[in-house]
Design brief:
The structure is a single chain. The chain is α+β, with helices and mostly antiparallel strands. The protein is built from 5 helices and 7 strands. The model has no long low-confidence stretch (mean pLDDT 92).
């Protein structure tokens, strides 16, 4: 049974889980790799568009990708948190912003998703045990007024609608295709 909303215990746990979730994303965006790793339980699993695996490997891969310049920043909303004893669930709506260049034109790629976090209290401290990201939609727009992105819609048609621009971008990075 979920902890009753509004009780002091529920408020403290809700705040702790909220700060855990927000702290994990902030650590990732700031490159605070040790702090990011501390947010996870040893058995934690991550499942997102570009990665499925252990939290340890997720932190390592995120660090490597950021060194290569693949670096999106997260625009965060307040998380919704539910606590059930020593377990919790939180949902964080967010936008992942990538400043990119497409054929010499500055562009803004934004992917909107809901990340669902599962956490567990371990020795009195909340740790993330799972993150699952659900992609809802994305946009790709010129960053400067009066400029135009020259992208053939057919180039995007083979990707899932909820993250087609993001998938197109990552595929071009992997293949070395000029943006």
């Amino acid at each position: 049974m979920w902890t009753e909303i509004g009780t002091p215990a529920a408020s403290a746990d809700t705040e702790a889980v909220s700060q855990l979730v927000l702290g994990e994303r902030q650590s990732r965006d700031r490159g605070w790799w040790e702090e990011m790793a501390e947010c996870f339980a040893p058995e934690a699993v991550i499942d997102m568009s570009w990665f499925t695996g252990s939290a340890h490997d997720f932190v390592r891969q995120t660090r490597l990708r950021s060194a290569d310049g693949v670096w999106g920043r997260h625009r965060l909303s307040p998380p919704a948190v539910r606590v059930n004893g020593d377990r919790s669930w939180a949902e964080l709506a967010l936008g992942i912003e990538f400043p990119i260049t497409v054929a010499g034109v500055a562009a803004d790629l934004v992917s909107y998703c809901r990340s669902q976090y599962r956490a567990r209290r371990i020795d009195g401290t909340w740790r993330i045990t799972r993150i699952t990201s659900i992609y809802e939609r994305d946009t790709l727009t010129p960053a400067m007024p009066a400029t135009r992105l020259d992208i053939d819609p057919a180039d995007l048609s083979g990707y899932r609608a909820s993250y087609r621009c993001l998938a197109w971008y990552f595929q071009r990075l992997v293949s070395g295709t000029e943006m």
